[in-house]
Write a structure and sequence with these properties.
The chain is of the alpha/beta class. Helix content is about 45%, strand content about 15%. The protein binds 1,4-dihydronicotinamide adenine dinucleotide (NAI). 1,4-dihydronicotinamide adenine dinucleotide binds next to helix 5.
């Protein structure tokens, strides 16, 4: 038993040093839109993730440079760059997780829905390629408007006969990241210990942070909760305005995207109790898609968790977000089924 405990501690040491490739299964992650503002730092963060064994970087331009650059980092994954539609199939083949930050970002004065006309078409064609080349992959949708792009992908997968509702995720992690940061500041709590669920969707009032469930508890007054809620809902716009025409959140988004993809990989690898908020097919409300906490596992979503107890203010927020979220979902479904 002394010997076996030494083996165990040596094993842990190896894992901590990063030589985990034998213990951790092969996993291919593909980033679509990898040369963009989000795609580049996301490629960097995924290259640092020891759970990734192959990293495929795809874009319509610029990926050979990004791939060459990132590939020199001495971490586990092998990196390959793919450029142009004729290489999309190769980029996708064998993927366990596909992350999609492809599409145009907002400029000051724009809503996420203003991006619909361009991004809906991009997401539709990328989803068709996923259905063809890696129908079993977990899809992490970052491209906005997420409230519509997720339903578009679902419709494309349904038509292709590959739809598995457990494997399609709208990435709302940045809303959670923001809610945690803003709450920690007001609650004077250590930010690394803070948890805040964020539910609903990913645009304006459809983003509903549940500060009544935030931990550590802080009992903040109602006006501060309202201000925190508003700041979380407008967090993206805060960045768009500060960047003054140069785009939207890229670095914090890459961080959030890397956190969410890591959770997906852990779930696939059988790590227990992996829970993140995400915009998924749902029966939590009457809407077909809704963001809430989900438990991730070997097949993607293992369980969509409920909302838990809401404050009066949150109940009102939930009621008032439904019409906008419903319209955005329907807009996506309609787009996918027309052209
Ligand atoms: P960007 O313009 O810097 O990069 C987008 C990349 O997508 C470009 O490299 C472009 O070449 C590529 N692209 C365009 N069409 C493509 C196609 N058909 N296939 C593959 N790649 C294609 O934009 P950025 O800042 O990286 O934002 C990307 C998207 O992420 C936007 O839609 C933005 O609204 C969204 N976003 C989502 C957030 C979220 O919380 N879910 C937060 C921030 C941004």
């Amino acid at each position: 038993s002394a010997l076996s405990s030494k083996c165990i501690s040596d094993h842990h040491l190896l894992l901590r040093r990063g030589f985990a490739s034998e213990a951790s299964p092969d996993r291919k992650v593909t980033v679509l839109g990898a040369a963009g503002g989000i795609g580049q730092p996301l490629a960097l963060l995924m290259k640092l993730n020891p759970l990734v064994s192959r990293l495929a970087l795809y874009d319509i331009a610029g990926t050979p440079g990004v791939a060459a650059d990132v590939s020199h980092i001495n971490t586990r994954s092998e990196v390959a760059g793919y450029v142009g539609e004729e290489q999309l199939g190769q980029a996708l083949e064998g993927s366990d997780v596909v992350i999609i930050p492809a599409g145009v970002p907002r400029k000051p004065g724009m809503t996420r829905d203003d991006l619909f006309n361009i991004n809906a078409g991009i997401v539709k064609s990328l989803s068709a390629a996923i259905a063809k080349y890696c129908p079993n992959a977990l899809v992490n949708m970052i491209s906005n408007p997420v409230n519509s792009t997720v339903p578009i992908a679902a419709e494309v997968f349904k038509k292709a006969g590959t739809y598995d509702e457990r494997k399609l995720f709208g990435v709302t992690t940045l809303d959670v990241v923001r809610a945690k940061t803003f709450y920690a500041g007001k609650a004077k709590a250590p930010v690394a210990e803070v948890n805040v669920p964020v539910v609903g969707g990913h645009a304006g009032v459809t983003i509903l942070p549940l500060f009544s469930q935030a931990t550590p508890k802080a009992n903040l007054p109602e006006d501060e909760i309202k201000a925190l809620t508003k700041r979380t809902q407008d967090g993206g716009t805060e960045v768009v305005e500060a960047k003054a025409g140069k785009g939207s959140a890229t670095l914090s988004m890459a961080y959030a995207g890397a956190i969410f993809a890591d959770a997906c990989l852990k779930g696939l690898n059988g790590v227990p109790d992996v829970i993140e908020c995400s915009f998924v097919q749902s029966t939590v409300t009457d809407l077909p898609f809704f963001a809430s906490k989900v438990r991730l596992g070997k097949n993607g979503v293992e369980e969509v968790l409920g909302l838990g107890p809401l404050s009066e203010y949150e109940k009102q927020g939930l009621e008032s977000l439904i019409p906008e979220l419903k319209a955005s979902i329907e807009k996506g479904i309609k787009f996918a089924n027309q052209s």
